[in-house]
Amino acid sequence: MTAADGKEVNRAVGQNYLIHIIILLAIAAGVGIYLIATTVLIAKDGVFYIERAQEFSSDPVGIIKGHPFGYPFLIFVTHKFAATFSDGSSVYSWIYSAQAITLFCRLIALMVLYFIGRFLFGGKVSFWAILILAVLPWPAEIGSDVLRDWPHMLFLAAGFLFLIWGAAQSKWWLLGLAGLAAGLGQMIRPECAQLVLYGIIWLVLSLFRQRQEKTKVLCAALSLLICFAIPTAFYAKARGKVLPVKLKQLISSSAQPELNRTKEQDSNDHNHIYAASNLPGKIVKAIGKLFERISENLMYFFLPGLLIGMYYRLCKKSKATQQERFFMPAFIILNIIMLTLLYCNYEYISRRHVLPLVAISIFYVPIGLGKLAEWFGDRFSKERLESSENRRRWFLVLVLIGMGICVPKLLKPIRIEKAGYRDAARWLDKHTGKDDIIAVPDKRIGFYAQRAGIETADDEIPEEASYIVKIEGSDDERLTSYQNLHQEYWQYVDKRKKKGKVVIYKILLAG
Asked: Is residue 355 part of a domain?
């Protein structure tokens, strides 16, 4: 091959991945903008993040000391920028700012993930994998909501890319960038620190594979740790603590000190033994719940492709590189362990928690679908076509079927089943005073109404409240035991199916 031919090949490859990125970003952006425009109600956690962002300018130190401040800070900066072009006082300006920065982080994260896949699996596999990820309903919904998962995924994916790139190229400064991404990412979610663990283990293993390059390995390790320590030290000093709250709780709950035991503790030893005996059962339940959540994210249809692809690439002899054989299993195993511990201690795993697992392992889906396509082509194709043509045709059929399953869920507006909450909030905004305090079963009602809300449960009525909002299943569930209430408004919670009722009562003065 001549030099001219080499330049033509490089130019074609460059154009190829640019076309891939443009297509993927266009599809993901289109889906994201549609979901933002049709969102009926943001996530309950989103209210918390926006309220912290609103307080950032008045109490930045207090915000930093509390819950990880990275995502509220991104919302704050985005809102500041948006406020220069529009009215920044509206609650909707905060909501759209938060959704916009979430979608922006999702788009950049998808681009980073594409390069991870391109590096480990090749351009075609990476393109199909990210295309599937872009249209999966749950990851797409999370990426257009007021949630921190995709901003966290951006830093996690960027650090992961720098790790595998640095490991392949033996460049210490890339490990430094991975450490920096981990340090910054943990300000959004502390789980981003896992990148440092992968890097250190890889470097330790490199000492046995490349004994003559100890200096280079040491430089890479120092680069990784120092770049991680710089933002981490700042964050720890600002917060006044090093370990995340949940990790501290996990350590304290696991520790059973033998010193200073009381008689009551000794008498309750059988409870600890019983709890320990339940641990295997909890682990089994955790694995089951984890499998269920992954299946839901993959719409069940793409799950076989994921499992087949992982088996083909990691369990059988394949062309997988050293970087794939170490970093992919390490990431999958550690995240399974973390999610299992989460369930064992808090008894829940949400669809959001498994996003990193789904996003990083998504590249095995098109590989598995390719193997299924090959199997279907050999058994069901009547036409005498070349095996590659058969495989390509069946692969497209499988991908199109999967996307067809995703589309109805993808087009459903976010939380349309709670449209009555928004109507109740509008009524409160129009018919109550700015100083009125509202007792609500869901803080989002008070948030959308821009009223001070007190979240209550059951039949509790706070003394300082002027109005109370209740969710009722039928007419028999009204607050009939309270004589000082007057019904002002009601609407179905799910307006399409006419299920449930959101009812607003005015609290009358006694006597």
From this structure: no
Number of structural domains in the chain: 2
* SS3 (DSSP) at 333: helix
3-state secondary structure (DSSP) of residue 479:
coil
Phi/psi of residue 36, each to 5°?
-65, -45
Cβ-proximal residues to 131 (8 Å cutoff; 6+ apart), any chain? 23, 24, 27, 399
- What token pair was written down for 9? 């090949």
Cβ–Cβ < 8 Å for 406, 299: yes
Residue 192 exposure: Cα atoms within 13 Å on the Cβ side: 30
Residue 445: inside a domain? yes
Torsion of CA 160, 224, 175, 238, to 10 degrees: 60
- pLDDT tens-place string over residues 171-219: 889 999 999 999 999 999 999 999 999 999 999 988 887 655 788 888 8
Write out the two tokens for 1. Answer: 């091959």
Q: At what angle do helices 387-411 and 364-380 cross, to 10 degrees?
A: 120
* Integer Cα distance of 115 and 165 in angstroms: 10
How far is 501 from 478, CA to CA, in rounded Å? 10
Q: Which domain holds residue 35?
A: 10-147
- The type of residue at 411 is L
Task: Give Cβ neighbours of residue 488 (< 8 Å, ≥ 6 apart).
Answer: 427, 431, 467, 504, 505, 506
Please, what is the angle between helix 194-209 and helix 214-239, to 10°?
A: 160
CA distance 198 to 210: 18
Q: Are 40 and 99 contacting, i.e. CB atoms less than 8 angstroms apart?
A: no
Residue at a domain's end among 126, 147, 168: 147
3-state secondary structure of 495: coil
Question: 396-408 burial, b if ≥16 CB within 10 A, otherwise e?
Answer: eebbeebbebbee
| pTM confidence score | 0.89
In a domain, 297, yes or no: no
| Sign of the torsion formed by the C-alpha atoms of 471, 474, 477 and 482 | positive
Tokens read off for 172: 């210490």
Q: Which of 125, 147, 169 is the last residue of a domain?
A: 147
Instruction: Point out the residues of the chain with pLDDT beneath 70.
Output: 1-15, 88, 210-212, 241-277, 381-387, 458, 474-483, 510-511
